[in-house]
Structure formats: C-alpha cells, structure tokens
Design a protein that fits this description.
5 strands; alpha/beta; 38% helix
C-alpha cells in the first residue's frame, strides 16, 4: 500500500463483499463516529462509506436497526529479514563470466560482448535498487449485528516503513496532577 488510491481499491473490494453479506441479512449499516488522527482510519472510513453507497448498501447515520461497521489495523514490524532479491551486480557478474567463456571459444565475438550492457540493464531494472520493507499491515473489516458477525474480512499488505504512522493511532498522553492542601 503506497497511496491513498490503494486505500480506495481496498474500500471498493470490501464494499462488494459487505454488500453481498448485507443482502443475505437484509441489514443496513452504520459507522460509529471516531476520529483517530491517523490518516488511514479517517480516509478508509470515508472511502468505505462512499463505496458502500455506490454499491447499493443502505448506510445510516445512526445505529438504530443497523449493523455496525468496524475495522482494525495491526502494524507489524518484522525483525532481521533476509533479502528477497539477488545482490546488486549479479547479472553483470554472470554475463561477464559468459563473455570470458565465450572469449575462449570465439576470441571476443561481438554477440558475447553484447551481454554486458544487457546484464547492466537487468541489474538496474531487476529491483535491486528497491529496499525490502520490514512493515506489513493487517486490516480487518467487520460488520456486527448484535452479538453476531455477519461479515469479517482480513487483508495483509506490505507498507513502506516511513508510512507506518499513517496506520498507527497515536497514544493518548495523560497527566497526573497532584493536588495538595496548602492551607
């Protein structure tokens, strides 16, 4: 997930699933009013609301007779991940070895020399310049009617480490105030 557009794609996907579940239960839905100060939460709620309406769901502004839509986001930071890509220069090294072998046979024929620029291009475009991310999010969207879950769906996405704060709700800071009797 690298853009708000991806959040909208998720919202559209969930809206389709929720709408199908709601048809089976003949159930309107509502969202509780929450402001988390985390960009994903507020945006996803608005995007999901819009997508539900566009897909024909009855979305209410009050809870009376409606199922409650909730979602949770778990940000996971993995430790000590191994690289999934070959080290930079692997393709160039391989091509260089082929060229050396070809030299022994052809005395540096032109086709063998062409492998070097092709290998450099493969190194540049094979993803070696992209760092592996150590962050994932698990986004679970649910619809609850009373004590019954009528819909539950979880999705897992890689996110950029610098974007983790988009998904995390800031902790509320509390202060303890000591009142003393000065009299």
């Amino acid at each position: 997930m690298q853009a708000a557009h991806h959040w909208d794609v998720l919202a559209e996907y969930e809206a389709k699933l929720i709408t199908e579940s709601l048809k089976m239960h003949n159930l309107p839905v509502y969202f509780e009013t929450t402001d988390t100060h985390a960009p994903f939460y507020n945006s996803y709620k608005n995007l999901l609301t819009s997508q539900l309406v566009q897909h024909g769901a009855e979305v209410r502004t009050v809870a009376h007779g409606a199922g409650r839509v909730t979602f949770t986001v778990d940000v996971i930071e993995h430790k000590d991940r191994d690289s999934r890509r070959s080290p930079p220069g692997s393709w160039t090294l391989l091509a260089g070895g082929i060229v050396v072998a070809a030299h022994a046979v052809d005395h540096w024929s032109t086709p063998a020399k062409l492998l070097i620029p092709a290998a450099v291009a493969a190194d540049l475009y094979s993803g070696n310049w992209i760092e592996d991310t150590e962050f994932e999010v698990v986004i679970t969207t649910q619809v609850q009617k009373g004590v019954q879950l009528v819909h539950s769906s979880s999705n897992i996405y890689y996110i950029n480490g610098g974007d983790a704060d988009h998904y995390s709700v800031p902790e509320k800071k509390t202060r303890k105030v000591l009142l003393t009797d000065q009299g």
